[in-house]
Amino acid sequence: MAPSSPSPSPPKCVLFLFSAVILDAAIVALADLPGTWELIVPNAGIASMHTAVTRYGTVVLLDRTNIGPSRKMLPKGHCRYDPRDEVLKRDCYAHSVLLDLKTNRIRPLKVLTDTWCSSGQFLPDGTLLQTGGDLDGVKKIRKFVPCEPHNFCDWEELKDVELETGRWYSTNQVLPDGSVIIVGGRAANSVEFYPPRKSGAVHLPFLSEVEDKQMDNLYPYVHLLPNGHLFIFANNRAVSYDYTSNKITREYPPLEGGPRNYPSAGSSVMLALEVEGDSDYSTAIIVVCGGAQFGAFIQKSTDTPAHGSCGRIVATSPHPVWEMEDMPFGRIMGDMVMLPTGDALIINGAQAGSQGFELGSNPCLFPVLYRPDQPLGLRFMTLNPATVPRMYHSTANLLPDGRVLIAGSNPHYFYKLAAEFPTELRIEAFSPEYLSADKANIRPVIEESPEMVRFGQQFHVFVSVSLPVVGTMDVNWASAPFATHSFSQGQRLVKLTVSPTVPDVDGRYRIVCTAPPEGKIAPPGYYMMFAVNLGVPSVARWVQLVP
C-alpha cells in the first residue's frame, strides 16, 4: 500500500493573516482590561527601596548607601565621606531623592548612613521617622521634615538618640498616642518605641517562635486594631499583642499555605474601618495574600511557583477563622494598596522564586483588584498589565489624586542596568478604572473642608459634581504609609460617619462628617481626605487629626 501523501501546507500569507488576527485579538483583550499606565519620570536616578508620600505633594524615595554609584549626583560640595563604606569612601551620589508631583522633577537628598531594608512611619506633625538599616545605620534614627517643593528640606540623622537594638527588616506602626512602635528585625525578636521609653527594648517571644531555618519572621505585618492592640503576623501565624503590658491577648489559627513574610513575603492589608450599625468601628478584617513556598529561599530556587492563596480573617471576632480564596495569579513580592473606595490593589511582584537578590522570576505584570464587598469567589478582577517588571525592592503608594505611584525594582546587590530584570529607575503611575474619562462627570471636587479636626468633631465638607448627586457620598480618610518590601507600614483607611448629601448654594453639596472618635481608630496625624461618589473618588485634601 502506497504511503499517503502529506497534507499540503497552508500558504504563508494565510498563516501570517491568522497570526495577525490572534495578535490583534490579544491586544484588544488587554486594552479592554480596566486601568491605565503612564510613565511620569523616565530616570529618577535611584531605585526606590522605600517610598512615602508627604502632605506637600512630594514623594520621598529612599534606596541605601554602601551600594556604589547611583545615577543621581549630590550637589557640588555635598559628598558623603565614610571610611567604613565598602564601595565608595567618598560618595558623591544621591541615594535618596524627592519627587515633586506637580512638575515630576527630582531633587537629590543626602542620607548619611545605610538605610538598607529599614523601616519608617509618619509622626503626628507630619515628620517622616525612619529607623534602622544595615551596617553603620542599624541603630540610627533619621527624620525628614517635609516642606513645600520650592523650599529646602533634607534628611536629618539624630545624634542624641539611637535605637537600643539594631533593627534590620523591622516594621513600624504609629500608636494611638502618636508614638511609634518598632517591631522585630533580623536577630531582634523584640519591640521598642520612639520616643524611647524607660523599658527600652522588650522581648517578644512570639517572633522567636515563628522563626524558621530561612527566617520568615522579618518585616512582620503589623496592624493597629480598633481595640488598641496590635495584630502581628509573621511566617504563617498571628497574634493580638497588648504592647502596654507586653502580653499576647489572643493567638489566631495558623494560615495554611506556607510562610508569608520575608524572605517569602506576599503582602497584607487591614480593610477599611467603618461604622456598621452600632459597631462603632469595632470590626477589623485582615487580608494576607501570596508568598513563596518554604525552601525556595534557602535552595535559591528561582522557578518555584509562588502561592496564589489569600487568607481573610475577622481579627476582632470572638471565634476568628481564616477564609481562603485564590488570586488569579500566584504572586511573591506583591504590594497591596488600599484605594480610597475601600478596594485593595495588588500590584508588582513575581510568580516564582522568593525575595532576595536575583531569586525571583516570571514577573507578575497583571495588577489585581480585590473587592472585599463581593461574595467569596468573585472578589478578584484582573487589570491592565504593566510593561515594566517590578521585582525585588519595588514599591506602590496611593497618591492624593487617586493614582498609585509605582517605583523601584532592584533585584541586584549593586546597580545593574543591563540584565533580564535590570535596576529600575523609571517611575510610573497606575490609574484605576475610577479615573477613566467616562466617569469624570460623577467625580466629585472638594471645594471646602477643614485643615484640622479633633477626635469626634463634627465638620462640613462641601463638594461639587457635574451630574446631580443621587444618594449619599462617602468621605474616607487614607493614611500615608511607608512602603517597603511588599508591605505598607501604617497603612489605614477609615470611612467616616456622614449625613446624607444635601444641596447647598452655588450648585455645591454639603456633607456633615464626624471625625474618628479616638486614636485607636485613627492615630493622630495627616490623612488624605477623599469624597467618594458612586465609587469615584475626588482629589484628596490633606487634613490633620489632633486630640
Verbal overview:
A six-stranded antiparallel beta sheet has the order 7-6-3-2-37-38, with no helix packed on it. The chain has two helices and 45 strands. β24 (335-338) and β25 (344-347) form a beta hairpin. Helices cover 5% and strands 35% of the residues. Mean pLDDT is 94; it is low at 1-28. The chain starts with 11 loop residues before the first helix and ends with a strand. It is globular and about 65 Å long. It is mainly β and 547 residues long.
Structural class call reads mainly beta
Percentage of β-strand residues: 35-45%
Number of strands: 45
Extract low-pLDDT stretches: 1-28
**What form results from the Cα inertia axes?**
globular
In spatial order, strands of the major sheet run 7-6-3-2-37-38
- Mean pLDDT value: 94
Helix content: under 10%
Tell me the major beta sheet.
6 strands, antiparallel
Count of helical regions: 2
Oligomer: single chain
Radius of gyration: 24 Å
State the distance separating the first and last CA atoms.
Answer: 96 Å
Question: What's the SSE blueprint?
Answer:
Layout: H1 12-31, E1 36-41, E2 50-53, E3 58-62, E4 80-81, E5 90-91, E6 96-100, E7 105-109, E8 119-122, E9 128-131, E10 141-144, E11 155-157, E12 171-174, E13 180-183, E14 190-194, E15 202-203, H2 205-209, E16 221-224, E17 230-234, E18 237-242, E19 247-251, E20 267-270, E21 285-291, E22 307-314, E23 323-326, E24 335-338, E25 344-347, E26 350-353, E27 360-363, E28 368-370, E29 380-382, E30 394-398, E31 404-408, E32 427-431, E33 445-448, E34 452-454, E35 458-464, E36 474-478, E37 482-484, E38 487-489, E39 493-495, E40 497-498, E41 502-503, E42 509-514, E43 525-533, E44 536-537, E45 541-546
Parallel strand pairs: 34-45
Antiparallel strand pairs: 1-32, 2-3, 2-37, 3-6, 4-5, 6-7, 8-9, 9-10, 10-11, 12-13, 13-14, 14-15, 16-17, 17-18, 18-19, 20-21, 21-22, 22-23, 24-25, 25-28, 26-27, 28-29, 30-31, 31-32, 33-35, 35-42, 36-39, 36-43, 37-38, 40-42, 41-42, 43-44, 43-45
